[in-house]
Amino acid sequence: MSGLKNVVIIGAASGGATVARALAKSLPETHRIVLIDANEAAFWQVAGLRASVQPGFEDKLFADLATFWKPGSRHIVKPKTKVTELGEDFVVTDAGEKISFDYAVLAMGAKYQTPGRQASHSKAESIASLKQMQAQIAAARHILVVGGGPVGVEFIGEVISQYSGKDKKKITLVHNGKQLIGSKYSASLHSKLSAQLQKAGVHVLLEESIPSEQLPSSTGSLEAARTFTTAKGTSVGDVDFALLSFSGKPNSQLVSAFDASAVDPATQWVRVDEQSLHVLSDDAGKMQRYFALGDVSDAPGGKLVAQINNQGPVIAANIAALVRSSSSKAATAGIKLNAYKPLPTFIAVPLGPAGGAIQTPIATLGEWTVSLIKGKGLFLSNFQSLYKSQ
Ligand SMILES: Cc1cc2nc3c(=O)[nH]c(=O)nc-3n(C[C@H](O)[C@H](O)[C@H](O)COP(=O)(O)OP(=O)(O)OC[C@H]3O[C@@H](n4cnc5c(N)ncnc54)[C@H](O)[C@@H]3O)c2cc1C
């Protein structure tokens, strides 16, 4: 027995890892971090689309979780371990282990279609799946992209930058909105992206949708080339590869099973106090030791790593303050907690390494800026430094 008390973090992707790194700097030595993830390796979603198209890129996107902490660290990481049950002051894993804690952080993220997430908990299987998708795209003649949000549009950007000239693919994008990316973003973002897609020969159908009964169950090659017909009757023929790019669904089932009042029934996001990021519940006792961030939470500001980078340090500071104030007291009452401040609306949508557009709070800018900020490097160095053994 170590005699140390635990702070459990469920999920070791951007959200969980960011809290873990910040908390390791301030957590009193009476406590240790137990970082748990169902996956063997962390995966950099931000670059997942390029890895699904560009052969050789896939290896850069994974970081083994087993080496998250340096040997000799008092903190623990448990890769390939799924939390299957929550309690007021404990979690249970799929190995049947019950881990008690003083505080816990929910960082379970959201379920996206691949390649927006790993295809498997195994790193080797996830890499094999990305390679398979690269081969399917290389062989495809007509690609249908359903959904013109950031995932669908960025995916097209990767395909047009990888396959040009005689290798160029026919691409059709079907989007049910008036504006690419979404109506909460600027008209200028839409027009900059539309102009580049049009120049590349992409056929964009706005305010159109493919009825759900026609959709394949997942992204990938179709068994045989086929024709799709939109709800308005437009025919999209001879499609042999389809990308389904809908938004992710929060992984909040564990929370609903323990305390349904902590989950927003409309969105399935875990409800948090928008400043302290403490989980909200109608039952005062049940979730008082829990915080949540990232794609599983309803913290304001959009589901982005950029917001997680602000949320993680706030949760770490709040847990450290609570632990210091009284290691036996769970309630937050009486302690002044740190407040999260979301970034203003900001989105970078590269079209491959050299194209795309970016909306900042000041202006919407084009290819040169988005390429410099995101398109070329896809923030891979941030990922590598987050997971460098410490
Ligand atoms: C294709 C794509 C491109 C993106 N591009 C950008 C971008 O350019 N900039 C940006 O800021 N954001 C971008 N995002 C959004 C960003 O990737 C997400 O906001 C971020 O990854 C969310 O991190 P998270 O830690 O909350 O959740 P996730 O990344 O979903 O991770 C959740 C983790 O929890 C683990 N987990 C879940 N349930 C359990 C359980 N019961 N037990 C144990 N482990 C569990 C999972 O295995 C997973 O590792 C992009 C997203 C996608 C899909």
From TrEMBL:
Belongs to the FAD-dependent oxidoreductase family. The keyword RNA-binding does not apply. This is FAD/NAD(P)-binding domain-containing protein. It comes from the Eukaryota. Residues 6-297 form the FAD/NAD(P)-binding domain. It holds the Pfam family Pyr_redox_2. One of its GO terms (cellular component) is cytoplasm. Keywords: FAD, Flavoprotein, Oxidoreductase. One of its GO terms (molecular function) is electron-transferring-flavoprotein dehydrogenase activity. SUPFAM superfamilies: FAD/NAD(P)-binding domain (SSF51905). InterPro entries: FAD/NAD-bd_sf, FAD/NAD-binding_dom.
